[in-house]
Each structure stands twice: as C-alpha cells, then as structure tokens.
Write a structure and sequence with these properties.
28% of the residues lie in helices and 23% in strands. The strands form 2 sheets. Strands 3-2-1-4-5-10-8-9 form an 8-stranded mixed beta sheet.
Length: 275
Amino acid sequence: MKWLRAVQSRVYEKLFYVTGMKPWTRGYAEYKTKKIKQALANNPFKQAELPSGYGFRIDERVVEYPWFFARLPEHATGRLLDAGSVLNFDIVLRQPAMQAKKVFISTLAPEALCYWQDGISYVYEDLRDSCFKSEYFDWIASLSTIEHIGLDNTMLYTSDTTKKEDYSSSYLAAIREYHRMLKPGGVLYLSFPFGKRQKRDWFQIFDGEMVDELIAAFGPSRQEVFYYKYESAGWQSSSRELSKDATYFDIHTQRIHDADYAAASRAIVCLELVK
C-alpha cells in the first residue's frame, strides 16, 4: 500500500543517515530521490553556481536532471526522444516540461519500470542504428548513456551477448544518428563522465580531446558546454581544466568507498548542441 511504502521510505532514509551516509547502502535510493525532487522543485537550476553542499554523496543524476529541465522549454510542444532511458522514472516523466511533449524512450531492452499507460512510447534498439526517420524529433536527451555505447552492456542493461563489445569509439555513430533524427534547430542534451580518459569494461571516462571529437561529429550550429565536479562536500560548477584529472567510483567493482564517498562520476560534462 502507498502509505506503507511511504513509511518504509522514511525509515530507510533515516537508516542511511545513522549508518554514515555511504552511497549505495540501505536508504541511499530514498535519500537520492528526495534530494532530486527538491532540486527539481527549486528550478531554475543555477547552472553556473551550485549552492554549498549540493548533492552531498549523491551520484551525477542530482546534477543532470535539474540541468536538463533548466534547459528544456517548459511549455513548448513537440517530440522528445530519451536516448538511453535515463528519464524513465516517475519523478522525471511527471515534470511539467514533459507534459506538453510526445515522449519516446529508446533503449536496449525492456525494464521493470514502464509508463505506457501515460502515453510514453518505448523502442528497444541500438542507438547507433535507430529505427526513427530523419528530422523527426525536436529534442533528444541522452544523459549518462554514450559512455556505455560499444562496450559491455551485458553487465547491467541486456542479456543479449552481441552487446558485449569493445568498440570504444562507436559512440560517435550514435552522435551522428542523433543529428540525423533531429529537426533543423532541434536540440541535443548530452551528459557523460569527464576527466582522466579511461576505458573500463562497461563504460568509459571522456577527456577533453574526446569531447571535441564528439562535438565535431555532431557539427552543431550552436553549443553550450558545462562542467561539474564532485568533491567531498558535494557537487560544484567546474571547468575543463579543473576537472581534467577526475576519476570514477564504480560500486560494481570497488566495494570499499573512497575517502570522498563519491557515488559514481567525480566530474561530468553537460552539452547543449543545436542542429
């Protein structure tokens, strides 16, 4: 029942506090969801200056979602593609800016969460070879997705063994597909881990050279680039130079937290690219 879930959520969140606020332990999901809700309710997101302690011990979603909704036109109508299914959550899909839009979600395989009853359309495909026709979308959001393209997606996202790959540059094919699918003047909202270049089995960290290569592959008519960095006190606005050595805490392979208790990326880059 709804009231029971609410009580359980409060108990788990309290447990998270009393046990040391360690990311990915019991209550982290509830704590993270509460903070993201608060951040979304407090839009407009101040992209150039985050408040002290913002997103303390929370992964990059606490930056990506508010950043995206600060950029997405709230009342405009049109078609929006979520390329990667990072928007496929109730607290995200129910944001006012999503209500006037026809939303499509493209990802590798079906997920437990599904909102078809709310008019959300789902397609299961490889983003490097999409089924959608050219110049179909007004907006494409691809948040924390391209770092997985061409690598081992069988770890978390699909049981299809053909998606256990090692093609670290094939994300560029997806970027070109995004460009093809956008209408002239359409906007791509993109985010991914940034810092010291590293390829792991199921994701990679992008450095400045890779960011430049990606932007060139899309060929935007206009662009805006934002960098954010995680430090022990929380997330803050950053720059390419200040974030260039950032690393990543991977809970799937590193069971012991680092001293800063980062939950995942220690830096991300968020791009708004206009076709």
